[in-house]
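hiii, so i know i said id send this last week but things got crazy w the move. better late than never?? heres the sequnce for the chain we talked about at the cafe, plus the structure i predicted for it. fair warning i was half asleep when i ran it
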Amino acid sequence: MSPSVSVFSPRSRRDGGRSVALLLAAALLWTGCPAAGKRASLPAADEELLGAKGDPRILTLVQEGGSDAFAAIVVFRGDAFLGQSAMLEESSFPLLNEFGNTAILLLRPNQVVPLLKNPSVRRIAWFGPQGRLARLHPSLELDLLARFGAGTEGRDYTLLARFQDVPGEMEERQATAAGFRVDTRGGPNLVLSGPLAGVPQLLENDRIVYLEKESGK
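okay and structure toks below
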């Protein structure tokens, strides 16, 4: 008779751990969990709506799902405060700022499509994590909202970017990738010109500590 193997033996623990790992891997593949690298399949009508009223970053967030909140720029067909305050309150969308027909809302991926189905919503643009708004001067933020509301966010705008220290070639390349050109350099600051639509991408650089209007503008 062969000797029994204790469930508390090292070999048994290794075999049990391997089995659990295999089961977890199979579960991830079966459910299409983001950890397995598979995006959610959206109804064709929802994808069409996201393509018409959203932007590529918004589409990706909805496809990936998740529960992390993000800031988004929402353009309405009428005044955001007068016409939409009741709807926003009922829907529990945190309002971070508003100006005219545009607002910055804190959303979760599963809230995007229902919001886009509201006929009063013209479009939504991704902004990023809420904390990045703290690096925008209030007057620049209002100009950003006004440009998005008017549909002119693609026009040139001159701003001052303050960095943690003297920016180098990498920081300038990142600014260029966001659609900006470098006008002047001075110590830890760059004067940039480009579309306000590129500000969210510009703020992905965490070495930027503050963005504001260029002096005299």
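btw The CA atoms of residues 72 and 214 lie 25 Å apart. thought thatd interest u
miss u guys!!
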